[in-house]
Design goal:
The protein is built from 1 helix and 13 strands, in the order αβββββββββββββ. By secondary structure, it is mainly beta. The protein has a single domain, classed as Aligned Prism (Vitelline Membrane Outer Layer Protein I, subunit A), CATH 2.100.10.
Length: 201
């Protein structure tokens, strides 16, 4: 196979895989913009996006956190984020979406925006790289709800919360995580960053 034809076949395969991934829970047409923060960790790669179903908004979230490991353990802190998408009664009519997560830790109970509100912005607590030392990258997350309420996850305390993201005018409806895969006997950080997708309607 000529190199040009091979490259075209690979591109078509990648487009097909991407479309199949979006088809699981909505597609790229379901959002209008992306909100991000500026203090995410430097390690890992962006994984797949996951979207709330049509007509659902992220009304709550939960986090996967590895407890402090002590010496000589390897801390990873925040490993994953789930969005709890709701339509109508937030705790009865829900759909949970999760991009890739790290392998360590346990999931917290969901935190819900009050009064049927929805998530519009977020902030990450991130530990800056330390050399030498045990890096953890993202440690915790806060969200701001449509009524102005702020919710903070049960994460760890290393690092600082950065600036808030821009707000989503109509709420958050999907997410994508940046994850460093397990590194064997070397220092692990797991979740480094996250971005959220703003709902179209």
């Amino acid at each position: 196979m000529e190199s040009g034809a091979g490259a075209k076949l690979l591109l078509l395969l990648l487009l097909w895989v991407t479309r199949c991934g979006h088809a699981r829970s909505g597609g790229p047409s379901d959002y209008t913009s992306v909100i991000e923060v500026t203090n995410g960790g430097p390690w890992g790669d962006w994984t797949w996006p996951e979207m709330c179903p049509d007509g659902f908004f992220a009304s709550g979230f939960s986090t996967k956190v590895e407890p402090q490991q002590g010496i000589p353990g390897d801390d990873t802190a925040l490993n994953g984020i789930r969005l709890h998408c709701a339509r109508g009664n937030a705790e009865r009519n829900t759909h949970v979406v999760e991009s890739q997560s790290g392998k360590w830790g346990v999931w917290s109970e969901p935190l819900w925006c009050p009064g049927g509100g929805f998530i519009v912005a977020f902030s990450l607590r991130v530990e800056a790289p330390v050399t030498p030392g045990d890096n953890t990258a993202a440690n915790n997350m806060r969200v701001r709800c449509s009524d102005g309420a702020e919710l903070e996850g049960p994460g760890l305390v290393w690092g600082e919360f950065g600036s808030w993201s821009d707000p989503c005018p109509k709420g958050v409806c999907g997410l994508q995580t940046k994850i460093e895969p397990p590194r064997g006997l070397r220092d692990d950080t797991a979740l480094n960053d996250v971005r959220f997708f703003c709902c179209r309607s």
